[in-house]
Write a structure and sequence with these properties.
heterodimer, A: alpha+beta, 2 domains, eleven-stranded mixed β-sheet, two-stranded antiparallel ribbon, elongated, B: alpha/beta, Rossmann fold, six-stranded mixed β-sheet, four-stranded antiparallel β-sheet, 7 helices, 27% strand, globular
Chain lengths: 416, 222
């Protein structure tokens, strides 16, 4: 192999070198962008759950009492027994559980969406601590309430006012900005979990359709090993029965409905097509290039180059061209990914995870989590793409080199 | 075969399908001898040269070059043998268009393990002998026909060959440049003692040779 010869060949044959590089780099860029987009959609699908510190949320649907008075469970979130929670906690792959108790409270003059939350837990709605805009977060053992800021403004609720929820008084100790909080597990009023449990346990209407004991909950937020999420979801359905709603990043991905979000198979197929296009472009350009050089190769062999010398020289040229194409493809993909990262994506929140009763104004509206698509090129994808380019170069150069090196010098040199 | 014989071909034939281009030719060339192979176009001169130089394998017969029978050698063995023993000069020069004059001269040395400086020095020396010391960095496209052929001659000499095969070396040159090239070949043969087998259809040029071999219809006629 001779570097000087290779450099000069690539430099002086600019047109064919550039054609080859641009062709392959387009395929490589396409491959990187497709995979980055797919990855971005996957990451976006994690966001609604990630915001609440979980990988999986679990609810169970059931009935609401005919008479909507006092505290009731939403039809999408009825009792999950304490024993069921313990069984879930013991499943291999579950790293932690946060709990919540969501209630609709129908008082004579007002309807409340109430969420009972744990005070200290890195998983679940206790993350609201960071969304308190005024006042303070709930303190241990005190019957007090946080009110959602917009709701408080609408109904003229002020800090330190006492609000009456299901005939029980709670001083308002702080306001929460729901626009800064997660889109799931939001409410008008947030109470300590124990207070919400008392409201649920003492509600006859609720007990009539969904027997409840303190310690039971109706929302579970689960942190799990990433590779076990899918298996855990089906195991949880096994524990909670067919009325269980288990939300995972995959279920959000399906809701996105985008081609990229539809399946890994699409990305794989599109990537394969991109690679095949890249290989064909590289092969065709280099085949043309090598065919043009048949006489030159005849001269090399006449002056004493062995077949192996010829193959290695052509492989070197091909690998270097494809390496440059890989780097260029990567740069194009980086620029394209940067541009695509300004794209916004709306992730629909399933109706059963929306806390608002559908029969209240605005309750039937679809809720979305809107975010910028987190498109980026991971280093391992970048490395793979460049490595793939080099492999394509090696194989193309090797195959074509082997073919052309069999040429007999006399065949190409005799016809002057 | 005498001790000084550098090349001998015995009963050489070459067939392409049913067409026999070389028919049972036997000849030998002594070390340092300048032999011209003359004949009309299509009489089989270039094919015979290809057989004798190992560029092509005969359908029948044997070739012994520098004491080695080359008929049974593999493609790569032949290439290595050519690299060490043979130089070629072609009618169309066959220089690599992307390489400078000195790099074209050094082309046979590229696969060898040696530094670029060593290759450069050797090529410079030969180009100097060809009065092309001032054209070493020029691409073939910037050289005249005569200069290109002188570069090709320098390339043929880079591996200190025992014999040079020249196929119509003046075919693409005007008469005065052709004479100059013939002068260089004569000088090489006279001063360096290199054997030359030159193919030409111009009998006038062949007068410079020690010996003339005439071919007609694939056979040696005199």
């Amino acid at each position: 192999m001779n570097l000087r010869y290779m450099t000069k060949e690539l430099y002086y044959q600019k047109r064919r070198t550039l054609m080859s590089i641009f062709g392959l780099s387009t395929g490589i860029a396409l491959l990187i962008v497709l995979n980055s987009l797919s990855l971005a959609y996957r990451q976006a699908a994690h966001v609604p759950l990630k915001e609440i510190g979980a990988d999986i949320t679990v609810q169970r649907s059931g009935d609401v009492p005919k008479d909507l008075a006092g505290a009731v469970f939403p039809c999408s979130a009825v009792t999950i027994r304490k024993e069921e929670v313990e069984k879930i906690q013991k499943l291999p792959g579950v790293r932690g559980i946060g709990t919540g108790l969501l209630l609709w409270v129908f008082d004579p003059n007002r309807a409340w969406i109430v969420l009972g939350i744990e005070k200290e837990n890195s998983i679940g709605p206790s993350l609201l601590r960071s969304s308190v805009t005024e006042g303070r977060f709930l303190e241990d053992g005190k019957p007090e309430a946080l009110v959602e800021q917009a709701y408080a403004r609408q109904f003229g609720i002020r800090l330190n006012d006492a609000i009456s929820v299901a005939d029980k008084k709670f001083p308002v100790v702080g306001f929460v900005d729901a626009s800064r909080a997660a889109k799931i597990a939001i409410a008008n009023v947030y109470l300590p979990l124990k207070e919400a449990e008392d409201l649920a346990a003492s509600s006859k209407g609720l007990q009539s359709v969904s027997p409840y004991e303190p310690g039971d909950v109706n929302l579970l937020f689960i942190k799990a090993d990433q590779e076990k999420i899918t298996d855990l979801a089906s195991e949880m359905k096994g524990i909670l029965g067919n009325k269980a709603t288990v939300a995972t990043p995959d279920s959000f991905l399906k809701l996105l409905g985008s081609l990229f979000a539809l399946s890994d198979k699409f990305t794989l197929a599109a990537s394969l097509i991109a690679i095949i296009i890249a290989v064909l472009i590289a092969f065709k350009t280099m085949a043309g290039n090598i065919a043009e050089r048949a006489r030159e190769i005849g001269v090399l062999k006449a002056v004493g180059w062995t077949n192996r010398n010829v193959v290695y020289q052509l492989m070197l040229e091909s690998v270097i061209q494809c390496f440059i194409a890989g780097i260029l493809g990567l740069l194009i993909a980086l620029v394209a990914s940067f541009g695509l990262s300004f794209m916004k994506v709306n992730i629909p929140i399933p109706w059963e995870m929306s806390p608002t009763p559908h029969f209240l104004p605005g309750g039937g509206d679809q809720i979305f989590k809107t975010l910028r698509l987190p498109v980026h090129v991971p280093w391992n994808l970048a490395f793979f793409a460049v490595l793939l380019s080099i492999i394509i170069g090696g194989l193309t150069g090797g195959l074509l080199g082997r073919h052309i090196s069999k040429i007999k010098p006399s065949e190409v040199l005799r016809h002057e | 075969m005498s001790k000084s014989t550098i090349l001998s071909g015995m009963d050489l034939s070459k067939k392409y399908g049913d067409l026999e281009v070389v028919k049972g030719v036997s000849l030998s060339i002594d070390a340092g001898e300048f032999v011209c192979l003359v004949g009309k176009s299509g009489c089989g001169k270039t094919t015979l040269l290809s057989l004798l130089s190992g560029l092509e394998k005969p359908t029948r017969g044997r070739v012994i070059l520098n004491g080695k029978e080359i008929n049974g050698a593999s493609e790569d063995e032949l290439a290595l043998f050519r690299r060490e023993n043979v130089g070629f000069i072609f009618q169309s020069f066959n220089l690599i268009p992307t390489l400078a004059a000195w790099e074209n001269v050094a082309l046979p040395l590229f696969p060898l393990k040696m530094t670029n400086e060593e290759r450069h020095l050797r090529a410079m020396e030969l180009l100097g002998k060809m009065d092309l010391g001032h054209r070493i960095k020029h691409l073939p496209s910037a050289l005249s026909g005569g200069e290109k052929q002188r570069v090709a001659i320098a390339r043929a000499l880079i591996n200190n060959p025992k014999i040079i095969f020249a196929d119509e070396p003046t075919g693409n040159l005007d008469s005065s440049t052709g004479e100059a090239i013939m002068g260089i070949l004569n000088k090489l043969h006279r001063d360096e003692g290199v054997a030359i087998l030159m193919v030409t259809h111009e009998v006038e040029l062949a007068k410079a040779a020690n010996r003339l071999i005439r071919m007609k219809d694939g056979e040696v006629v005199s």
